[in-house]
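Figure caption, in words: inputs first, then the predicted bound structure.
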Amino acid sequence: MIVLSKIAEVRNALRQVRRADKRIGFVPTMGYLHEGHLQLVKTAREQCDYVVMSIFVNPLQFGPNEDFQRYPRDLERDRRRAEAAGVDLLFAPAVEEMYPDKVLTRVTVAQVSEPLCGRTRPGHFDGVATVVTKLFQIVQPDAAFFGQKDAQQLAVIQQVVKDLSIPVEIVPCPTVREPDGLAMSSRNVYLSPEERTQATVLYRSLQLARRLLAAGERRASAIRAEMVRLIEAEPLARIEYVEVVHFPQLTEATTLAAGDQLLIAVAVRFGQTRLIDNLIIKLD
Ligand code: PAF
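Bound structure (pantoate present):
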């Protein structure tokens, strides 16, 4: 595995790869790699000849009171994990390399960026869309792999690629979970043991929604209410949102009908830690 930190070096290295007609797969990350990231690499390996991973904690996507400074970082450990997973090129730039000057250009995706996490994290998806567009310009991958856990991010990126005609296939990959159902996330390390135990309520609430839908419930408000009741039973949980929306448009769903593709999404705080999870389901 080669490790590079400069944009020009990455472009040079990938020029050779492209010349050899290899299909390039790309896994963008913010590091502190867990099994979810490694599954993205595994899928990329299966579908591509050459796998590039980026590790970059992108300041543009953090709000002023968010965890940019304390976001977990361990490049040496990530380097070992990426290599063992089969990454061919690891791109780990410094902030100064990605943003040497004040950034005056942003990629903004209207509508899809606005509901759910967009409400409490203004500017977050502009930061994501901007850095991912920039990374796509640098790597020029044939395919890019994103976890479904960040379903709104996935919808935003799919919209960017469509609207800007970026020639990359976006491959959504299933959420990887701990044995008790908690979705893997680099932020799980922030949880105290008690919060960690109660945090399984996100997954449990989604399972409840699945059961209600399977039993024929078609009122989004009733599904939400049951989920809220379950989450509120955990004393440390503070709900930010519980939503039922159409996917990938992210428009509100009220009465659900056959053929609807739904995103049932939750964001819950435990102390300072904000966790998200979701279920994407198509109704028969
Ligand atoms: O999902 C993430 O880790 C980040 O939002 C991404 C896509 C790497 C952009 O910084």
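The two ends are 45 Å apart (CA to CA).
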